[in-house]
Structure formats: C-alpha cells, structure tokens
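anyone else get weird line breaks when pasting these?? whatever heres mine. first is seq + tokens for prot A
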Amino acid sequence: MKFVDMDLSEDLVKALNKHKIVEPSEIQARSIPAIMNNHDMLAESETGSGKTLAFAIPMLENLQHKHGHVQAIILCPTRELAKQVAGEFEKFGKHTDLNFLTVYGGVGLEPQMNALPETDIVIGTPGRVLDLMERDALHIDQVEYLVLDEADRMLDMGFIEDIEQIIDATPDTRRTLLYSATIDYRIEVISREYMNNPVLIRAKSQEVRGHLFQGYYVVNPWQKISLLHNLLKQEPKAHALVFCRTIVATDHVARELRQRDIKAEALNGDMSQAKREETIKGFQDRKFNVLVATDVAARGLHIDGITHVFNYDLPDEPETHVHRVGRTARQGADGDAITMLSEDDYRKFDGIMTIYDDEIEKLTFRNWGKLERIPPSPPRDGPRGGGFRGGPGGRSRGPPRGGPRRSPPRR
C-alpha cells in the first residue's frame, strides 16, 4: 500500500512525496484509516515507528481553520518532543490553512497567549497547557482530537494529575489518541477511564538497527567518574550520551570530565530553554562529544550518530533502560551501551537482565589501580581524596577489593 492509495488529498500526498515518503509504516497504515473513521486509538509504538504522522495526517485531512477555536491538542512529555512534533505538522501542513502553536515552559507566556485565538492545533507540555488554561487563555472545550504522545513517559514524570485535569476540560465527543512505548497497567487505567472502545495497535520500529553491544562493570560509586573517563579516552571518536539520575549529578559528572580534557556538557531541567537548545545543537554539531543528561532532559531527543550510551546511574524502571540504549545502534550503525553497576543497583539490574535474557556481558577494567577516588556527588569543601587504594591491582576478573559484598546479578 502507498499513501496515494489511502484516499488522501492530492496536496497532502504531494507534500509527503516531496520528502520521499511514499509508503506508510505499519503504525501509519493501521492508524490512519481508524482515526479517519472516528475511532479512539491506543497504540504501542517504538521510537522510529512513524507515530507522529500516524496522528498528524488525519488531522491535516479533516480539520479546517476556525477563528477562536482550538481543534486539537497534543500533549508531550518534554519541550524537545513538542517542538519535534510541531515541526512535522509545519512540514506537511503547509498546503492547509491550519495554524499550529507549540507551548512549553522556559519561555514567555505572552507570545503564546497572543497566538492562541488563531491557533487550530496546540502541541505542548502538560504544565504549560494547564497554565494557559488557568489563565483563561486556552479553551479546549471544543477540541476534536486529544493526543497523548509518549504517555508512559508523561506518567513517569508525574504528569498524571495535569493530564486528567486537561482531559476533563475536553468534550466527550473528542477522539482520544494515546501513543506509548509500552502499554502497562497505568496506560490501561487511562484507556478504561477516558477512551471509547479504542482500536489497539502494536507496531514495531521501521528503523534499520545496527548491532548493539551491551556490557556492565561492577564498581564502587566513587570509581564511576574515573572509569567513565578511562573508557572515553579509549574511544576518542565517541559521540556519547551519559545518563544520570539527578540534575546535580549531570553537572558534577560533566565538570569532572572537562577537568580531565573530555569535551562534555550537561543537559538538565534546571537550564533555560535557550541554553538547552544551544547545548543540544552543540552536541549535534560535534562541538563537544559527551552529553551528560537526565532521562527527563533527554526524552524526545533524536540525535543521529550516537556511538555510546553510558548508564552512570541506573533508572528505576527497566523500560527506561530500553529507551536509553535505543539511542545508539541506529540507522544501521553499531553502538555500545555500558552500565556502571554498584551494589545499590543490583535489584534494578535484575529487571533489566530479565528483559535482555542475559545478553548483557560482564566486563572487567584491567587497570583498577589507576582509578581515582572521586565522590559520586559534588565534593565538600577541601581537597579531594587521592587515588583509590584497595582495588585488585590489575587482576583480570572481578570487582575491586573492598567493593560490593553482595553477589552481582546473574549472567
């Protein structure tokens, strides 16, 4: 099947062809007819499945500009994803008279408020959408479409109350389209509560994947930065993404790497939108080769050419690990995903090992004695401790002496 066979307007097919999009992906082929026939949609879709066009095409086909009435609202977990989704609407909706507006925090409210009377489709983060509603600037009581994009991630980020408040402000006649990387019990609860007999679709990514190598090192927390530094030194051409649990950790790790002549920058939610965009562009343009980020900040980023993903800290949910390592080994290129495992993370890592069926290889760094002893969080005032004493001194297997006493996860 091709888009030309899907009873779409000639202008939309031409817009797709202009960007060499001729055949729909699996999720597009299954979603578009169902949405066009006014069904709710519950879709499990991986990154690279083409889900944005799956819900954008029916809107571009069915909606026409109406002054003073927002006709569709699309909720995204992060500013970056909202901007990406808006870019797709702009790219393929130029032949329409529809107006699109991206709303998120970190930028001024007034320009967004001024644009709303002529806006047909709002794409934004739950917090800013709710803020505009509470200011009586955004009215969604006449929307025809409500999209929850990457719903699982929005729930992970604690947006459930905001989402419910937004949904309650929409009419019962709306079409609800929910897209999630995984459909768990939380998604099922939302489906039962707010959706009307949704069509269920599970689609795989259409992206050509390269070989993904996964490995882990058993380390003490104070060895992590030194180990990360040594591993990056061995890969001078690496374009690496390092995941940390907290904002403080991203700043600390990036700073310590820079002190060791590694070009690294942090990306976290404390940064202004302008600084976030500048940092992302710098990483894309190869002005530095290591981006240290939290999951919240990195969600929705699509940066080509990432060669390595490092789990400096483990995520709370195994599914988040899947999202992390999915940033590398893309578009046919190979990639490495390396986890730095300390004793406190064994229980979390067992869940990850279950998903990958023991495909993650235990690794041993052969120069334990050279690893510095660096506090895992910003050091207190005063000199930092010297080199680590108590490692196995070059033994080829096993964790450092004095390290985790519990048994590491099974292989």
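and prot B, same format (seq, then tokens)
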Amino acid sequence: MKKIEAIIRTSKFEDVKQALREVGIDFFSYWDATGVGNEVKKAEHSYRGTVYDTSYIPRQLLTIVVRDINVEKTVDAILKAAKTGVIGDGKIFVSPIDESYRIRNAEKGDTSLYNTEG
C-alpha cells in the first residue's frame, strides 16, 4: 500500500477530483493548504488603504491511500488533471504504508481500503 500526497492549485481541485473518480479512486481526504515556494516573489497590493499579500497561490493538499497496483494510475490522473504548465502547479509525494485497518469491522491490509483493484 502507498500513501499519495498531492499539493495542487485550488483552481484545479474539481478537475483532479473528477480524474480520480474516472480511474476508480472514490475516497480521499483534502485540506486547504498554504505555503511558500519559489514560483512567485513577494507581492503586495493595496486596496482601499489595506495592504494584501498576493504572493501565494491557494492550494489543496490531497491524501490518498491506495493498493500498490493503483499507484501509477492515481499519480497519472493527478498529473494530467492538475497541470497548467506554469511554475507552481504543485507536487506529488508517494510513501509506503505498513498497515491499514478499517475501524468498523477491524478488517486489515489491502481489503480495508475503499478503492477496488483494477
């Protein structure tokens, strides 16, 4: 099993969600995320006397745990749907997961995951 974490532009979230559904990934968690990167230098704009920092791009952090056989299709779906071709499109990280348990019935391992094989 692998954990896939993807940091994507908020504007591409719906496209990524649809792409994941199309490849059979129906369950994942996500959060609003902020951070700093190299894509934009600090930029401030003033509006009606208030200074706003516009140097960041809104992001979503997606966390998905999948069976090993579903890693490639999941990563490919995110890559295709999240890409704008501009610096700052995001990152994808893949990490090993040692074990998984379904709380409802104590099922463990691959069978505890929501996505199906294939």
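btw re prot B: Helices lie at 13-22, 71-82. Strands lie at 2-9, 29-33, 44-47, 50-53, 59-66, 90-96.
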